[in-house]
């Protein structure tokens, strides 16, 4: 079996105890690397200031090598905060209004990808297969090809891919499309993202789809497919089963005794629809006064990308809004919204999901949304909660037992909340069972295996 090289902007290096630093995705990629032996390369998260970064730092763990590089401060600001997070992220989430184009940032994006390719090159052997992750590194395969590498190279995009009319507002869209065309296999979260990509390719005659999922563009033949990412379903369900014993979960349970809990868990990001969700919660209470003092809405939202101005502004906006709504509908003995800006360990998170009667997941646009899947996996089979899910999350294509909502429609979301809170047990069980069976069958290991099998196939 060929060795595997994974490249992503950030790398999950296991800690001293050998535990994976993060959630399901890191665990699945580490398992895939351990099975075949391999390398995981990416940015250390550190800046080298204004001097050229040192050579790669290699850490061996069994048959996996972690290879990390620093970036200069200029590269961090222009490639990462600039082009990746202020152009590609908003454009791929259909937010043309938030994209900030700058020539320096665009140039830096391509320069850092060339730098990554040159740092990676000495580690690559002829039989290795290379799997590149996410929007930070689209041009990487083109750079490796230019250096003469003939390896199988695949790319998986974790975020949505927009339609041509949205993508083409970006000045360097042709170079980005050319970059994608240099891979052997392109993986998207859903078939809608794949269709959007095919549409972009065809629109200006950049390429053709010879048969479904088989493309030719810029002199290269490649494939594209939908590979919906999953979670480590069984392990997460196990966390949730055991979580009741955890002191933090016990305290949370006691503090909502006699009330129904609604939970929202998201990075603080404008794509997640947090302000619209708070509006919907307020509307739900206003329209259903019988639920006043009977529900608590817990929103857990770690800060993210605070150095990017749009995110900093959002931190203030959401905190203010939560405070305003608490002031407007709260009573002397009831705080309707508990708003928390911190990271929670996975076992505790699983326990909190299980306590909640409704999981409220309402992104305005999301590649997949793993929170929706985690909420379902964490439920008690005898008394499961209800998932209220945005139709604009990739997960909505799979989780048919959810109550699907349009997050821009505040009244519609408020109505779904009411329906979720009042749903009879039989209906909850039936909806949940179908979703859970799907998640057990299509977990993150299956996703990984499906992608790598297709990438290996000529
Ligand atoms: P994200 O935009 O980060 O991921 P999501 O898929 O929901 O969104 O994953 C977030 C992860 O962070 C979940 O595993 C969640 O449990 C965890 N998390 C969130 N808040 C937390 C908190 N307070 N404490 C601890 N953990 C927390 C991107 C794309 C998604 C795509 C994923 C994977 O934007 O669309 O589903 O990658 O491909």
TrEMBL record:
Which top-rank group of organisms is this from? Bacteria
EC main group: transferase
Describe the subunit structure: Homotetramer.
Q: Which family does it belong to?
A: Belongs to the glycosyltransferase 20 family.
Q: What is this protein called?
A: Trehalose-6-phosphate synthase
Q: According to its UniProt record, in which pathway does this protein act?
A: Glycan biosynthesis; trehalose biosynthesis
Q: What is its EC number?
A: 2.4.1.15
InterPro entries to which the protein is assigned, alphabetical: Glyco_trans_20, Trehalose_OtsA
Q: Which UniProt keywords apply?
A: Glycosyltransferase, Transferase
Gene symbol here is otsA
A Pfam family that this protein carries is: Glyco_transf_20
SUPFAM superfamilies to which the protein is assigned, alphabetical = UDP-Glycosyltransferase/glycogen phosphorylase
Q: Spell out the reaction equation it catalyses.
A: D-glucose 6-phosphate + UDP-alpha-D-glucose = alpha,alpha-trehalose 6-phosphate + UDP + H(+)
**GO MF term set:** alpha,alpha-trehalose-phosphate synthase (UDP-forming) activity
Q: What does this protein do?
A: Probably involved in the osmoprotection via the biosynthesis of trehalose. Catalyzes the transfer of glucose from UDP-alpha-D-glucose (UDP-Glc) to D-glucose 6-phosphate (Glc-6-P) to form trehalose-6-phosphate. Acts with retention of the anomeric configuration of the UDP-sugar donor.
């Amino acid at each position: 079996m060929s060795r595997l090289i994974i490249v992503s902007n950030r790398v999950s290096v296991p800690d001293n105890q050998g535990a994976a630093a993060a959630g399901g995705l890191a665990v699945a990629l580490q398992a895939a690397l351990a099975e075949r032996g391999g390398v995981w390369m990416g940015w250390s998260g550190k800046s080298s200031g204004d001097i050229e970064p040192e050579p790669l730092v290699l850490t061996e763990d069994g048959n996996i090598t972690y290879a990390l590089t620093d970036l200069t401060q200029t590269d961090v600001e222009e490639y990462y905060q600039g082009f990746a997070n202020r152009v590609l992220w908003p454009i791929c989430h259909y937010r043309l209004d938030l994209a900030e184009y700058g020539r320096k940032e665009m140039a830096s994006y391509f320069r850092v990808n060339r730098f990554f390719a040159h740092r990676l090159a000495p580690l690559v052997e002829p039989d290795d297969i290379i799997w590149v992750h996410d929007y930070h590194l689209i041009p990487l395969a083109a750079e490796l090809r230019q250096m003469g590498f003939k390896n199988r190279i695949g790319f998986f995009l974790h975020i949505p891919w927009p339609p041509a009319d949205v993508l083409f507002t970006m000045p360097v869209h042709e170079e980005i499309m050319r970059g994608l065309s240099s891979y052997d296999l392109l993986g998207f979260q859903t078939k809608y993202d794949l269709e959007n990509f095919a549409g972009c390719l065809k629109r200006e005659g950049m390429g053709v789809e010879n048969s479904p999922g088989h493309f030719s563009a810029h002199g290269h033949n490649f494939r594209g497919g939908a590979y919906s990412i999953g979670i480590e379903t069984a392990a997460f369900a196990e966390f949730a089963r055991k979580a009741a014993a955890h002191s933090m979960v016990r305290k949370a349970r006691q503090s909502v005794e006699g009330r129904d809990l609604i939970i929202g868990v998201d990075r603080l990001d404008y794509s997640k629809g947090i302000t619209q969700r708070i509006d919907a919660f307020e509307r739900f209470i206003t329209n259903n006064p019988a639920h006043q003092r009977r529900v608590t809405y817990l929103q857990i939202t770690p800060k993210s990308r605070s150095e990017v101005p749009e995110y900093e502004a959002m931190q203030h906006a959401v905190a203010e809004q939560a405070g305003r709504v608490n002031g407007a509908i709260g009573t002397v003995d009831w705080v309707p919204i508990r708003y928390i800006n911190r990271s929670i360990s996975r076992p505790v998170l699983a326990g909190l999901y299980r306590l909640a009667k409704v999981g409220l997941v309402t992104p305005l646009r999301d590649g997949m949304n793993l929170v929706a899947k985690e909420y379902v996996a964490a439920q008690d089979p005898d008394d499961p909660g209800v998932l209220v899910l945005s139709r604009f999350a990739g997960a909505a294509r799979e989780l048919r037992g959810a109550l699907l909502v349009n997050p821009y429609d505040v009244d519609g979301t408020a109505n779904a909340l009411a329906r979720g809170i009042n749903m009879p047990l039989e209906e909850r069980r039936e909806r949940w069972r179908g979703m859970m069976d799907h998640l057990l069958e299509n977990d993150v290991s299956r996703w990984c295996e499906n992608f790598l099998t297709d990438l290996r196939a000529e």
